[in-house]
Amino acid sequence: MDRSALYAVLDGYLAALAQRDAAAVRWADGALTSENNVMLAIGDGLWGTIEGIGSYALRFADPATNQVGYFGTVHEPIEESAFTLRLKLDDSGAVVEAEACVVRQSDSGIKFENPAYWTKPILEANATAPVDRAEMIRLSNGYFDTLQLNDGTIHTRFHPDCQRVENGVQTTNNPDFGKIVPVSALGCEEQFRMGNYRYDDEVRARRFPLVDEERGLVLAFGFIDHSGRLDTYQLTDGRTVKSPVRRPHSFYISELFKIDHGMICQIEANFITVPYRMPCPWDALA
Fold this sequence. Notes:
By secondary structure, this protein is of the alpha+beta class. Helices cover 17% and strands 40% of the residues. It has helices at residues 3-18, 121-124, 133-147, 175-178, 188-193, 281-285; strands at 27-35, 38-40, 52-62, 67-75, 80-89, 95-103, 158-166, 169-170, 202-212, 217-226, 232-234, 240-242, 249-260, 263-274. The protein starts with a helix and ends with a helix.
């Protein structure tokens, strides 16, 4: 299916979701759906509580695998939540897989105050110097290698102007958020070269199901595991700092990487707290 056909199915799915009408979606036989890493029956979860789709909308597509993705927000009775959606279609346009991440702050172990959702032009624009699909995945996976047991070693390439948005908040080069989370005042590569994320024990169950080669986007899913055992650790500048994570838990992550000129130029991520070492139901179906 081409991009316009994939977007048409996505738009129809979102319209049905906003109306709480799962029957309006054309589902393939045996279609599978998950929300926040749990398999659900079609029409369960967000379908029963949504009050509307937010104005923020970032769409991307992978015609080679009949998949389409979306970053936006959803309104429920208590709050507005960051929202990731991945749809996989069969050749007729029926939905085979629907994977959603809904970042309900009321459930979260981390509060992202005053989120400001926006679509970055760098994410929506076509890549100006694209690299091949395998290299895009390699660079994205290298980001996770850099994050895992972060010791200052860089396993990918960052554009000097790289920015990261997490759960609707810019967490790089953001001095205001840096007053709450000091590392957020630094740039992408600088954060990692300092070894700030040494407490991330493992980035596990990594998947890269959707690659938008035209726009240079890679959608990844996985988990960041924290054992909570680390008390203090040393940054690469010699300072000793205390770990902010002192309990076993994991993050279920949906992360979008913008790759251009062989570098990561922009990152957008939605993630939630889940039980420590929670397995991925999609892996069991692979």
